[in-house]
Amino acid sequence: MTKVASKPPLPTKPFVGIDLGGTNMQIGVVSPQLKILGQAKRKTKANEGFEAVLQRISEGILEACQLAGIMPSDLGGIGIGAPGVIDPATGIVHEAPNMRWNDAPLGDALTKKMRLPVTVDNDVNVAIYGENALGAGKQSSNIMGIWIGTGIGAGLVLDGKLYYGHFFSAGEIGQTILFPFHPLGGRTLEDNASRTNITNRIIKLINANHKSKLTEELGPDPDSWSKDVKSKAIAKHYRGGEREDELVVQVVDAAAEMVAISVANAVTLLSLERVVLGGGLTEACGKAFVERVQRHVKSFVFPKQCQRVDIVASKLEDTAGIYGAALLAMEKVP
Q1: Residues of 190-219 as b/e, b for ≥16 C-beta within 10 angstroms?
Q2: Which residues, including other chains, have CB under 8 Å from residue 56's CB and lie 6 or more apart?
Q3: Is residue 156 within 8 Å of residue 171, measured between CB atoms?
Q4: By CB atoms within 10 Å of each CB, which of 94, 97, 126, 334 scores lowest?
Q5: What kind of architecture, by CATH, is found in domain 138-314?
Q6: What is the per-residue pLDDT across 290-312, written as a single tens digit (0 to 9) for each?
Q7: Domain residues of the chain, as ranges?
Q8: Residue 221's pLDDT band (boundaries 50, 70, 90)?
């Protein structure tokens, strides 16, 4: 019988877990007992550049520590999940389209700024790692998490371990091609089904004189509408929302079906037992969105046995990345 290696014991010091997204960052101090002691939130503002984002991360760490009643020197280390293709051994973000980063030395830069050991991984990797340990994953051995927000990313746990692939890019489902003959910028899953794209498509259709209840809530300046049509506004007009709207339902349902095609392809390819859906759009639109993805996944997968795959919503929601990043750091820091 093969002996299964046990995970290292959890440390005695608290760790910081950071979920760095294209729009927001969530920062939390996590105790050795896996409780969040203090939490801070910041806008990412990636357009201001790497150093500005780094400064907001450090400010958020200080705020979370203050709310937890500790000093940064009391921490055992920092774990951070960032979007894009990342080498976890070096902490370098090789390519992050939503951040406009190429070969950004996130690990080294944050280590120098905070004087603490830093563990860097992909943002959805850390989220599904957290879900697998403490949330909707239920310790599944073969599981994928797909997070839908500003962009679309995924993380994989195969045979009980995070899977990176040879080029550290495993899980970049948002960059997979759905429509190869569309113009550049309209070919990938992320181009067509992210919250950003859903917002842009709704606004484009409203401008083309399609009827929508959203028009009553938008200001007079069309250039500002993209700031108003975020996940909560979309959910308000989606299935079961307080002001359900036919146009919003059509656009979001089309996005759900495109997500389902990509998820079904992954399930068929990897024979996954469970898929967790998370991210701002999924959390806002809730059960109706998850059920639509689930229904279409089951019609697309092969063979029939794969129809037993569980398609579930994140349980930890916006704390999944915090927990997962902190857990990874706890396990890697001596």
Answers
A1: bbbbbbbbbbebbbebbeeeeebebeeebe
A2: 25, 42, 43, 44, 45
A3: yes
A4: 334
A5: 2-Layer Sandwich (3.30)
A6: 999 999 999 999 999 999 999 99
A7: 15-129+319-332, 138-314
A8: confident
